[in-house]
Amino acid sequence: MNLHIITTGGTIDKIYFDAKSDYQVGDPVIGELLDSMGAQFPYTVESAMRKDSLELTDDDRKLIRESAERCTEQHVLITHGTDGMVQTGQALKGIEGKTIVLTGALQPAAFKGSDAIFNIGCALGALQAATPGVYITMNGQLFGIDNVRKNLERNRFEALENHGS
Amino acid sequence: MNLHIITTGGTIDKIYFDAKSDYQVGDPVIGELLDSMGAQFPYTVESAMRKDSLELTDDDRKLIRESAERCTEQHVLITHGTDGMVQTGQALKGIEGKTIVLTGALQPAAFKGSDAIFNIGCALGALQAATPGVYITMNGQLFGIDNVRKNLERNRFEALENHGS
Amino acid sequence: MNLHIITTGGTIDKIYFDAKSDYQVGDPVIGELLDSMGAQFPYTVESAMRKDSLELTDDDRKLIRESAERCTEQHVLITHGTDGMVQTGQALKGIEGKTIVLTGALQPAAFKGSDAIFNIGCALGALQAATPGVYITMNGQLFGIDNVRKNLERNRFEALENHGS
Amino acid sequence: MNLHIITTGGTIDKIYFDAKSDYQVGDPVIGELLDSMGAQFPYTVESAMRKDSLELTDDDRKLIRESAERCTEQHVLITHGTDGMVQTGQALKGIEGKTIVLTGALQPAAFKGSDAIFNIGCALGALQAATPGVYITMNGQLFGIDNVRKNLERNRFEALENHGS
Q: Which of B25, B96, C19, D97 is the most buried (most CB within 10 A)?
């Protein structure tokens, strides 16, 4: 796998600034995570923006699409805030020959018990096995981009069909 | 995805017993991990054995194969010690219609910075996207069972045909 | 040691609410921390308020002092935000026969690598050995309340008279 | 506080060697811990030995005593395995003008939820407040060396008098 990673901000990259008693989107954590897991494959990281996904604009999504189209790698991993993840995924449909997986985290990677590294793992496993197209992986599940929503009330991702289980 | 999980022991489940100044294979951690990640899909867990993978016998591998054949689920995740993982994978080839992914950890799940939850993530992503067959996922990579070895010296998994790194 | 713990909020108790893309002061973490460390001594926990310490008023400090005076225990541990910790300590001077130690955290207890549990440890060690009075412990150091300031620029606590480093 | 730290091995420094499917006493973790907590005071670290405390001999204890006597610092922190900690403490009695605190961990510092950093915190707090003498701090309590035992069955430290609470 030759992998291109596009980071856009979101909860996964949130850190805590005590000086301001605030937290903000920090440096992308993905490279450090992959290295600490002993990942052997080549990858490139591109920090497209550092935003909460609720603040992403159409122009931001255009930029993300251009990055995904432009890169020479066939496999593209996008780390993203959870609230606007489905919308960005929709804006990425129809790129020929690319397997694109979006993921993020419900708890910042800096937290004990964060889902960040688990979700990154899911994304990597899916990227290497899936046919070209756009996917989201969260909560251990792989969703086609046309069959997923964030359930805000339950704070988790679900398939559009099959609300049970 | 309907998932059956077979646990066999190995480093991933190692805990530390201070009373004996020793560590041993403990209860399988996989269920707790999946629940803490908010996994929504149904799964069953079967603890087949609790062994270091160097101690696994042909009979043990026969038992694991029978479990993988017998379960009604199409997707099978096997947590396993890393030293004998490839050998067990070889013993699982040729089960019709099943997607089987083996994974484990180089550091116990109880350790800070363990690769356990990352590897479980990779396995889940691969299980949902891969065609039937037997795979190993470690170090962020997905390997077909006939194209993987553990590099003991470097303590990592690699493709037999070596694409760089 | 019979210990009374007064929690007031601050960074140590901050958690992250993804639903609101925000973090706020959550339930006090101190009881859970002490239990997980196998603490054997009796203690009581009183949640006096849940505030950033920059928001603490004179009335809040009066309440904290009354709690410290009223409790029957001789040893009092106060978890507190770092910005107003010195000021609250000043407001606690002169309570007869009580050993009072204030501490908190520069990173929320929920973070990997947080200083919360280390600081709580320092406070407990000091409480059992110090003569009655008011102290702050942060960054591994024990300060008398009249000889400490928070260095905002360096985000750490220091003695007023500076002994090196 | 001018602090001298003597490390002797024990659970606190245990790491896991996957290559050997074994764990062993690794490099002392104390320096890294103190730095990560932003400790500002000067300290020196001396690795006296790397042993399980059950393997410590009278000669080892003589060496530890000599180190504690020889160092110019008044405050001495000793990290130690838990099983022989009381015995080593007994061998350190009667050193004029030194405050000596022994501590260790019931779970290796490398583990999630380890008590290592909490215990180190307790030791530092006690060192700065206690009168000269020999102490043990474990499970959040500070014990004079003549009033402590390890309860092997319950895997915790207790005062000799007062087995209740």
A: B25
The band of B26, judged by pLDDT with boundaries at 50, 70 and 90, is confident
Question: For A96-147, what is each residue's pLDDT tens digit?
Answer: 999 999 999 998 888 888 999 999 999 999 999 999 999 999 999 999 999 9
Give the pLDDT score at A158: 94
Neighbours of B164 (CB within 10 A): 8
Query: How many residues are there in chain C?
Result: 165
* CA-based nearest residue to B137, from B154, B115, B111, B152: B115
Size of interface B-D (CB pairs under 8 A): 45
Distance from the Cα of D133 to chain B's closest Cα (Å) equals 28
Strand positions, DSSP E, chain A: 3-9, 14-17, 22-25, 43-51, 75-79, 99-103, 133-138, 141-144, 149-151, 156-158
With 0-12 / 13-18 / 19 or more C-beta atoms within 10 angstroms meaning exposed / middle / buried, residue B125 is buried
Nearest to D112 among B14, B83, B110 (CB): B110
Closest residue of D to C158, CA-based?
A: D40
Supply A1's token pair: 């796998």
Strand partners, C101: C77, C135
**Would you tell me how many other CB atoms lie within 10 Å of the CB of residue C161?**
6
Q: Which candidate, D53, D48, D46, D119, places its Cα nearest to that of D87?
A: D53
Please calculate the CA angle A96-A122-B143 and round it to the nearest 5 degrees. Answer: 80
> What φ, ψ does residue C101 adopt, rounded to 5°?
-120, 125
Ranges A148-157, B11-20, C55-64, D46-55: which has the least confidence: B11-20
DSSP H or E run through C135: strand C133-138
Q: In percent, how much of chain D has pLDDT > 90?
A: 69
Q: What is the DSSP string of chain D?
A: --EEEEEEESGGGEEEEGGGTEEEE-S--HHHHHHHTT--S-EEEEEEEEE-GGG--HHHHHHHHHHHHH-S-SEEEEE--STTHHHHHHTTTT-TT-EEEEE--SS-TTBTT-SHHHHHHHHHHHHHHSPSEEEEEETTEEEETTS-EEETTTTEEE-SS----
B142: chain A residues, CB-CB within 8 Å: 124-125, 128-129
D31 by Cβ neighbours in 10 Å (0-12 / 13-18 / 19+) ranks as middle
Which 3 state secondary structure label does DSSP give A156?
Answer: strand
Judge: C14–A16 Cβ closer than 8 Å, yes or no. Answer: yes
By the 8 A CB rule, do B120 and B33 touch?
yes
pLDDT at A22 over 90: no
Q: What residues of D are in the C interface, CB distance below 8 Å?
A: 1, 33-34, 36-42, 101, 106, 113, 115, 117-131, 137, 139-142, 156, 158, 165
Query: What pLDDT was estimated at residue A161?
Result: 77
Q: Is the pLDDT of residue D19 over 70?
A: no
The neighbours of chain C, by the rule of 3 or more Cβ pairs under 8 Å, are A, D
D-chain residue closest to B108, CA distance: D16
Cα A128 from Cα A125, distance rounded (Å): 6
Query: Is residue B165 predicted with pLDDT exceeding 50?
Result: no
Contact B117 A113 (CB under 8 A): no
Tokens of B75: 């997707």
Contacts of A15 (CB under 8 A, 6+ apart): A23, A24, A25, A26, A108, A110
